[in-house]
User: Fold this.
Amino acid sequence: MAQTAKYAAAPGPGYTGVVVLADGGVFWGYGLGAEGDAVGEVCFNTSMTGYQEILTDPSYAGQIISFTFPHIGNVGTNLEDIETQGIAARGLILRAPVTSPSNFRSHSHLDDWLKLRSLVGVSGIDTRAMTRRIRDGGAPNGVVAHRQDGKFDLEALHAKAKNWPGLEGMDLAAEVSCRQTYTWDETRWQLGQGYGRQTAPKFHVVAIDYGIKRNILRCLADAGCKVTVVPGNSSAEDVLRHQPDGVFLSNGPGDPAATGEYAVPVIRSLIGSGKPVFGICLGHQMMALALGGRTGKMDRGHRGANHPVKDLESGKVEITSQNHGFCVIEDSLPANVVRTHISLFDGSNEGLKLTDKPVFSVQYHPEASPGPQDAHYLFDRFVKLMEQQRS
Assistant:
C-alpha cells in the first residue's frame, strides 16, 4: 500500500515493513529477512528468475532492488547460484509473500537466506506503482525497513533517505573489489555435474576486479583461460608483470567517473600495451573514459534479463542481461572508436571497439547469470584476439 502524505501513519495493524522514499512516498508492507533498515537507490529489475544471483551481484552495491516479477523466492535458495561471497544489494522489495520453496536444488528458504546475510526486505508492496514512479521520476533514494513490532520512526527514515548522497560521484568499486590477487579455474555449471575445472588452459587472462561476478570468471575459464584476478586499484605494472595474453575489465557498482579517477590512467596504459582488452559494464564505461569519452547517469537504468541489443556488425538482435545506471555518452567518443552495439529500448550505447587496437567492450552482461546466453560468443571473440596476437 502506497501513501504520499508526509510521514503517513500505518494504515492498520499487522504491517511490519515499510519503504520510505526521499520524496516523501511511503509504501507499507510486511518485513522479511533481517530486522533493521537500509538506505540506497531504489531501482527495479524485470528478471523472471535468478533472484539469488541478482542479490549477490556486486554491481548492486548501494541499491535497493524492487523486483517486478511477483513470485520471488518460490524456488528457494541454494549453495551454488551466488556471484560473490557476501551480499551486494542493500535491500529488496517484493510484491507477494515468499512461499515455501519448491525446487530440487533448494537448500534453504529465501527468508532464512536473507537473515543469515543481514539483508532487509519488505513484501506486500505495489511494485507496479513503484516501477511507474521510477520510470516517470527516475530512481529515488529510499529506505527499506523491517520491525516485527511495526513501530517505525518515519521522520527519521525520511531524513535518512533525503540525506543519503546518491550514487553519482560515489566510488563503490573500492568496497566490493578483492583485497589481494588470486587465481580462478572453475568453469560453468552443468546439470548433474555442477561446476567443472579448467585443467589445460591455453591463455592467461588478468581480470581487474571492480566488483566481478563469478560467472564471468567461469566463462573465461570455460573459454580456455587461466584467470588471475587482481584488485581494482592495481597499477598497470601490477597487471603486466603477470605476463597475460589478455586483460579483462570487470563489471562493478557506482559512478564510473569516480572509480575512473584511479582506474582510467591504468586502463589507458593497458590499452597502450597492445594486449587484447575486453571490458564489461563498468569496465566498458571506464574504457570509454580512458579513450576520451564521457559517461552520465541514466534516469532509471537498465536492469533485467530481457533487454534487446542490436549487434551493428552482424545485424543480429541479442536478448541480454543488464544491470547499469550509468552509460557512455555516444557523441563523446573519438574517431578511432566504433560503436558496435545499441539498445533497442532507448538507443543508448551498448558496445564499442577500437579500429587500431585489439580492444572492445560491451555494456551488458554476456555471462548472463541470470539471463539468456545469446552473447556468450563475446568470450570466444576475446580468445580469438589473443590467438591472433600469438600468431
